[in-house]
Amino acid sequence: MNVRRRLIPAAAMAAAAALGTATLAGCSGDAAGAGRTDKFDVVASFYPMTFLAERIGGDHVHVTTLTSPGQEPHDLELSPRQIASLEDSEAVLYLKDLQPSVDEAVAQSPVKTKIDAAGLTTLEEHGNEVGGHAAGHDGHDGGEGAGKDPHIWLDPVRYAQVAEGVGKAFEKADPGHAADYKKNTAALVKQLNALNTEFASGLAHTKSKVFITTHAAFGYLAERYGLTEEAVNGLDPESEPSAARVKDLERMAEADGVSTVFYETLVSDKTARTLAHDTGLKTDVLDPLEGITDHSRGQDYFSVQRANLKALQQALGAA
């Protein structure tokens, strides 16, 4: 099952393009689209892709971001100008099956270099329960809402694999600056490896290994560090949990010493606060890093991830 909210048919996109009244939703550095600048023009679908493009490309790239800060990326509907900016770009960096409107636009676009981050690492099927925890509380099997999980960027190791693939793609598409792209990629991968070490050591000794989130965004992170994510919802943060699922979580929280229900910055915290109230648990933010906003605990990927690590350590009782 793909993480999808609305499918934007080709006919609807063509009709929207004919209207020509919408504006570009977001751009790195300015409000203009990718317009054949004197730099390597790259369109990135949402923040984790933008971050890679900017860090790897450095001064040689002009990056246009399709998803505005604070916008839930799954809900993105492209404007006619965004579609035009995509067609005028030299490369597009996206994550297939995360944003249906982007997938369709990329498929129809003449862009020569199309970089699908999902093809640069491995994706797994994740449902409500993810990690090393045995699914045994009152017969819950963890299968509800299962599907290919797109949240690969939350695992520093997988994100580093994607970075390496993006770097190679940039080198091939813009060979005149290949040496710099290679150097920038190596520096970024080194930082991601260091972050992986921080998470591994910081979560090695905790009183509990189980944490609750409002939707299953942290499955790869949980698996990487020997934790278990129990999600109120599945991969779709807007889905509603069943009464049986809520009761299951209540009993699981008591049995496994769970202290906190995590919610995220771009989705309502109502479900988390309701569950926390009913179970006597605390609430806190665990940021899926789908976009940086004024509410983010940090200014970039690394600072937000370190804030996530701190929140997990506190909730899990790190030694």
Q: With helices defined by DSSP (H or I, 4 residues minimum), what is the helix count?
A: 10
Mean pLDDT: 81
Main beta-sheet strand count, sense and barrel state:
5 strands, mixed
Please give the radius of gyration in angstroms: 20 Å
Could you tell me how far the N terminus lies from the C terminus, measured between alpha carbons in angstroms? 38 Å
Strand content: 5-15%
* Outline type: globular
Strand order of the largest sheet: 6-9-8-10-11
The total beta strand count reads 11
Oligomeric state, counting identical vs distinct chains: single chain
Structure class: alpha/beta
Helix content: 40-55%
Order of helices and strands: HEHEHEHEEEEHHEHEHEHEH
Unreliable segments of 5+ consecutive residues: 1-34, 130-146
Walk me through the structure.
The protein is of the alpha/beta class. It has helices at residues 10-19, 47-57, 80-88, 100-108, 156-173, 178-202, 219-224, 243-256, 270-279, 301-316, and strands spanning 40-44, 61-65, 91-94, 113-116, 125-126, 129-131, 147-148, 210-213, 228-231, 260-263, 282-285. The strands form three sheets. Strands 6-9-8-10-11 form a five-stranded mixed sheet, with helices on both faces. Strands 2-1-3-4 form a four-stranded parallel sheet, sandwiched between helices. Helix 9 (270-279) links the parallel strand 10 and strand 11. Helix 2 crosses helix 5 (156-173) and helix 6 (178-202) runs parallel beside helix 10. The longest helix is centred in the middle third of the chain and has 25 residues, at 178-202. The relative contact order is 0.13. The model is unreliable at 1-34 and 130-146 (pLDDT under 50).
